[in-house]
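Practice problem 4.
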């Protein structure tokens, strides 16, 4: 049975679904960012410090360390950004769920009201039929 809230409930449900998909995408991005940070940290541990060699080798090693540290910092910022996106998406989903539940409740109350009105109308109709058949018997 359709009510005046049915279309609004459907729209809110679609918004909730969209928010859930967005949250899933942001969670995937966060997982990729964490993986990239983990790989960057592992790569930093694999870089060997030269114990001896030319100045150019030591400078190259130092540059490699600086690059890897910059990469780690970049990945940390990416993780922070992705975490913020996830948190914002969770808040948005929570807000959309509340709105959806409101309209779902209103629709349910409207359906209850319509069912009660239908029941009263049927009772009146049965009473009328009973009166008509009773009068015919007399």
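Answer key:
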């Amino acid at each position: 049975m359709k009510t005046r809230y049915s279309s609004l409930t459907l729209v809110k449900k679609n918004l909730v679904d969209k928010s859930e998909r967005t949250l899933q995408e942001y969670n995937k991005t966060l997982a990729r960012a964490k993986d990239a940070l983990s790989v960057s940290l592992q790569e930093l541990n694999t870089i060997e410090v030269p114990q001896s060699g030319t100045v150019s080798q030591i400078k190259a090693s130092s540059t490699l360390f600086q690059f890897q540290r910059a990469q780690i910092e970049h990945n940390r910022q990416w993780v922070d950004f992705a975490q913020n996106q996830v948190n914002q998406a969770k808040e948005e989903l929570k807000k959309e769920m509340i709105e959806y539940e409101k309209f779902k409740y209103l629709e349910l109350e409207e359906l209850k009201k319509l069912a009660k009105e239908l029941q009263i109308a049927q009772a009146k109709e049965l009473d009328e039929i009973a009166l008509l058949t009773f009068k015919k018997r007399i």
